[in-house]
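[SOLVED] Need 3D model of a two-part complex

Original post:
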Amino acid sequence: QSVLTQPPSASGAPGQRVTISCSGSSSNIGSNIVNWFQQSPRSAPKLLIYSNSQRPSGVLARFSGSKSGTSAFLAISGLRSEDEADYYCAAWDDSLSGYVFGTGTKVTVL
Amino acid sequence: QVQLVESGGHSVKPGGSLRLSCATSGFTFSDYYMSWVRQAPGKGLEWLSFISGSGTTIYYADSVRGRFTISRDNAKSSLFLQLSSLTTEDTGVYYCARDQSGIPPRGEFDYWGQGTLVTVSS
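Solution:
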């Protein structure tokens, strides 16, 4: 069981906005940066957001990240069918002296 | 362009051993922390290990510490993971990934391989 908790699923109609939460603690999100990864079916994960809110080159501005206290959030605006994927948050955990991924959220476009 | 290609995955019996390789190209390998991440069938991502560019700093997840060994050969731009005392719970796709974040590593995995499948079964 991961120390970073995400809702198992999220959904929205095309064009809508979806927000995914990632709940942690003071030893991980509360004291370290958060990264987000997108994994489409049968593909390797892709870095979507790094350092809480930074987008790598090529990632659309429809994807945004934020952090508040011991929680982090990924927002997807203008939802598209190609956004259907699994999304994972991740952060270093000082107590574990290791890196942890969230439980993952499956996004469905209705 | 940056490329990471894993190999070495196959079927092995419980208690067995395996060595995975990750051949890289397109960047100065020794400048980057590298990592291994795995994914059990139908499950989420699990980080396994980090190794620094020089190979002198290593971190492991509790689930594999003492059983798995990460290493690298900078002359060959290659990353390795030695797996031993395997159990059925080690079954999954194993990915190598490059960490863009520098020192200390922050898990900003900007490039991933396609993965190699390890199956542990009697």
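Edit: The interface with chain A takes residues 35, 37, 44-47, 50, 59-62, 95, 100-101, 104-110, 112-115 of chain B (CB under 8 Å).
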